[in-house]
Specification:
Blueprint: H1 3-8, H2 14-23, H3 38-44, H4 49-58, H5 73-78, H6 97-106, H7 121-127, H8 132-155, H9 172-175
Length: 178
């Protein structure tokens, strides 16, 4: 764990965060023993939107780093029941919608990622009973990505099956011929 990890846990004033980032920009990429970046810690600790925005702006790549449990910062922001540090039972308020928007701006793809429990950020938002506007924002991001994926898949004709076998190699009965 870096000093930046420890500081963002307590939602510091932005001028302190900015000074730390300027002094040690490489700390943004640092991971603790569980693979969490400072952005993970800030999101899981309920940091303010401006602090999250500063971290994302300084290192947007952190939005795509999965921790040991397969969680991204967006998972942690949407899971109000997550406990990052042993013995920390401080109740956490739901994230403001601005936090979710900032994290999606860093990586919209993160909305689709499932953790080791096979849960994505949308599911955590629902289980955590987050504001319906946040759930709808996550769903909209998911649908946008799925539409893009569908357009890409339509553009390229399918030439193989799920098993990567050429379609022409399938028996006629499977292709619908008698």
């Amino acid at each position: 764990m870096t000093l930046l990890h420890a500081v963002v846990r307590y939602n510091p004033p932005l001028h302190i965060l900015d000074t730390m980032i300027l002094a040690h920009v490489d700390a943004l990429e640092g991971q603790d023993c569980l693979g969490r970046t400072p952005l993970h810690v800030a999101c899981g600790s309920g940091a303010e939107a401006q602090l999250i925005k500063s971290l994302v702006k300084a290192f947007p790549g952190a939005c795509d780093i999965q921790d040991e449990d397969g969680r991204l910062p967006l998972h942690l922001a949407c899971d109000t029941d997550c406990v990052l540090f042993e013995g920390d039972q401080t109740p956490r308020a739901p994230p403001p919608i601005d936090v979710v928007k900032v994290l999606l701006s860093g990586s919209m793809q993160s909305v689709l990622v499932e953790d080791e429990d096979e849960m994505n950020p949308i599911e955590y938002a629902i289980v955590s009973d987050l504001n319906i506007k946040i759930v709808k924002l996550l769903q909209k991001a998911s649908m946008t990505l799925r539409r893009r994926e569908a357009k890409t898949n339509k553009a390229a004709p399918k030439t193989t099956t799920k098993d990567d076998k050429p379609i022409a190699a399938l028996p006629r009965s499977v292709l619908g011929y008698c």
